[in-house]
Design a protein that fits this description.
Jelly Rolls; about 110 residues; alpha+beta; single chain
Length: about 110
């Protein structure tokens, strides 16, 4: 079965949507997710401790700062804003397709 849904975002960040898609795996338990946007990606991480998301946000901000940072002066794609090209770079480092098999063992999802 094919489903489509939209996540409304408010700028860069990590957005939890496990509960939005969990019911789709009832039955066969296989879930394939695909992101259509070129500056977004999928990341499967635990969500039991909010510090995980804080640390990930800080890591990605240090890894790829905005184009206004002097370290990023080599970037030429800047007309869509200081966070656009860094978003493309971050998306290139993470997958846009994720496959998970919750039927085998729902606990494989970890602390979702």
């Amino acid at each position: 079965m094919h489903h489509t849904f939209t996540i409304r975002t408010h700028g860069q960040g990590l957005y939890e949507f496990t509960r939005d898609v969990a019911t789709w795996v009832t039955g066969d338990g296989v879930l394939t997710l695909f992101v259509r946007h070129t500056s977004a990606s999928l990341l499967i991480q635990e969500n039991a401790d909010p510090e995980v998301q804080v640390d990930l946000k800080n890591f990605f901000s240090r890894l790829v700062p905005p184009t206004t940072d002097p370290a990023m002066s080599y970037l030429t794609h800047t007309y869509e804003g200081p966070d656009d090209m860094p978003a493309h770079i971050k998306a290139a480092c993470c997958p846009i397709v994720a496959v998970d098999n919750w039927a085998e063992d729902p606990e494989l999802c970890g602390s979702c």
